[in-house]
Amino acid sequence: MRCAALVLGLLCLGCRLTPAPSASLGSSPLPSTTPLPTPTPLPLSPALTEKLSDAASRLRAQDASALTALLALESDAKNSAVLSEQLAGLYEELDFTDKLYTLALQATRLDPQYSPGFVRLGRVEQYLGYFDQAEKHLREAVRLAPHSSDAQLAYGLYFQHEAKWPDAERCLKAACDADPATWQLAIVYSQILVQEGKFDLALQAIDTARKVAPDKQMLVFQRAITLAEQATALEKSGQGAQAAALRQEARPAAEQAILKLAQSGPSWFHLSKLRQAMGDQTGALEALEKAHALAPGYLNTRYVFAQALLRQGQRERAQKLLTDDAAQKRQSDRYQQLALGVGQAPDDSEKRRAFARYCQEHRLINRALFEWEQLLQRKPTDPEATQQVKTLTAQRLKDMTQ
């Protein structure tokens, strides 16, 4: 399933930088789960399937000709929602926001009954900060295909981002029910249940997935971390003895699983919290060191690591990390502020111009190009946008083919 790749990306690599949730977006009822006939899109021809497969192989092999192969498919995609959506997926791997958005939108216009097109469009709109549009299109994806795990997952992740836990829970449960073989879904589902304090249900979801995939160490680790989170909740309610017992159960499993998840920064971060709670300061610092090396931007890893170094007396190194963390936070806050402004007023050319300039200044080439192109659509004769689109397109092509 495609959703497995999405979930693994979120779990192992952390989410991409996205604007802050929109405070103005009201709660939306989940769409009806009344079964609907799933539309059958026209399949790709053998020739197009082969061309798409070849482009994907070149892309994943980091072949310099990959971009040429992708560009050659764009004319064919103008007549196919399926090809548009799948080609958008390949551009997503390159983080080509402009191509991704255009092709996802094209897929929904070519076939308004094709749920994967709305999934793709809603996800990129959420990334762009177009939260109202994202919710609308993800809701439509689920309406068209209520038993699609891809659609339910995407809608659930949207609600998770908005901290609307009951809606996120219902979507992820539907995704797990639709595709019980994709064990990664159970991890996201359990994380949402933990947010709601439903620890027994979270453990049940993980144990159910382990029956399907008993050898997956990420499930073992997630179960251990869920026990650790439950222990923290018990400790806060004055049940210290029960909390200690859960941690004693959780730690051996987590320590064993981490050996096979060595390249997962988030896993090391959560293990450090467990070690810290059990009084192992040295072990916690070692885990934080690895978490920071692998994924410094995950949650508040850099800041927590700096604080741990301060407690160990390593002031110079800690101060450098805190300085870096503050700089990253300022940049992230400014990015989010500008992105949210554009998302709330997409036709405000000056807000979009300011955001495009900011992205270009900070070497966020793909997002800058997207914003300049969007501005040019609204003001076709704008000289700055015209020049920047030409410049950035040429620069990206040069970078890809070197």
TrEMBL record:
The keyword Zinc does not apply. Residues 1-23 form the signal peptide. InterPro entries: TPR-like_helical_dom_sf (IPR011990), TPR_rpt (IPR019734). SMART domains: TPR (SM00028). Residues 23-44 are annotated as: Disordered. Residues 32-44 have a biased composition (Pro residues). It holds the Pfam family TPR_19. TPR repeats lie at residues 115-148. Keywords: Signal, TPR repeat. PANTHER family: CELL DIVISION CYCLE 16,23,27, CELL DIVISION CYCLE PROTEIN 27 HOMOLOG. This is Tetratricopeptide (TPR) repeat protein.
